[in-house]
Amino acid sequence: MDTAGTALARAGGSMRTRAVHAGQGPEAVTGALATPIFQTTSFAYGSFARGAEIFQGVTGGYLYTRFANPTVAALEDKIADLEGAEAAVATSSGMAATAAVVSGLLSPGDELLFVGPLYGGTEALFASSCPASASPPSAPVIVTGLRTV
């Protein structure tokens, strides 16, 4: 979402300006200049047909806060702008981020090698999601020097 604040920040704003204004602009319904905090779990669709279009991905809109939320979208826009990226994804935890990246990058037949020890939850995720007998397998690598890798 390219908001007025993001466009302003990209037009040559300093890092400070971008940190404050990127990802925000006048809110569509209320016109609020500061990003509102949407504390809701669900959103109205206006009609059954529009709701069906949103669920099918035909029309943009918010379904349920666990999937997306205007406040989180503003955060993602701000992070993307600050990082010089096309887009960003905010997750609810580091483990959610780790799981999303690993599952998004690995395909059946790939191997997951990591330098351990890792955070216990991460190793447990790898062991349960990628056991050595499954595809992709995971295995810690003992590194004693760069040549080991």
Can you put this structure into words, describing what you see?
The chain has 149 residues and is mainly α. It folds into two domains: 4-83, no CATH class; 94-148, no CATH class. Helices cover 40% and strands 5% of the residues. The protein has a two-stranded parallel ribbon. β1, α6 and β2 form a beta-alpha-beta unit. The protein is extended. The two termini are 41 Å apart. The mean pLDDT is 79.
Report the structural category: mainly alpha
Sheet with most strands: strand arrangement = 1-2
N-C termini distance: 41 Å
Q: Which stretches are low in confidence, meaning pLDDT under 50 for 5 or more residues running?
A: none
Radius of gyration: 20 Å
Instruction: Sketch the topology as an H/E string, one letter per element.
Output: HHHHHEHE
Percent in strands = 5-15%
Oligomerization status of the protein chains: single chain
Helix content: 25-40%
- Give the overall average pLDDT: 79
Largest sheet: 2 strands, parallel
Query: How many separate domains make up the residues?
Result: 2
Number of strands: 2
Shape: extended
Count every helix, treating DSSP H or I runs of 4 or more residues as helices: 6
